[in-house]
Amino acid sequence: MDAFAFVHGSNLYELRPKPGQRHQAAREHGMHALRHFYASVLLDAGENTKALSHYLGHNDPGFTLRVYTHLMPSSDARARKAVDTLYSDTLSTPDGPQTAQED
């Protein structure tokens, strides 16, 4: 890979043609690839879909979500951590029928 290519995920984006070839006018090259890379970097950093939609000029955040959902990090770990934090922050005092009748 030379200095005019980058890899993101399993995709190789070459920004200059091989010797003797012309630039291709395909969407996966040039500005479209750069836009997709920009979106994937922001999603990986935790940016929300509505903000990304605005940055990319999309009118509908749902469109942005449909296009880039495969790049969004899994929320499983975040959900587990949120529930674990909720329960770890509770007081360790008993909360049962005996507690209610101690008055």
Please provide a written account of the structure:
GO terms for molecular function: DNA binding. Residues 1-84 form the Tyr recombinase domain. The protein is mainly alpha-helical and 103 residues long. Helices cover 46% and strands 8% of the residues. It has helices spanning 31-44, 49-56, 61-68, 76-88, 97-100; strands at 5-8, 11-14. The chain has a two-stranded antiparallel ribbon. β1 (5-8) and β2 (11-14) form a beta hairpin.
Element order: H for helix, E for strand: EEHHHHH
How would a crystallographer describe the biggest sheet? 2 strands, antiparallel
Question: Average pLDDT value?
Answer: 76
Distance between the termini: 75 Å
Total strands: 2
Name the poorly predicted regions: none
Give the count of helical stretches: 5
The backbone outline, from C-alpha atoms, is elongated
Proportion in β-strands: 5-15%
Organism: Streptomyces avermitilis
InterPro entries: DNA_brk_join_enz, Integrase-like_cat_sf, Integrase_catalytic
Pfam families: Phage_integrase (PF00589)
GO biological process, one term: DNA recombination
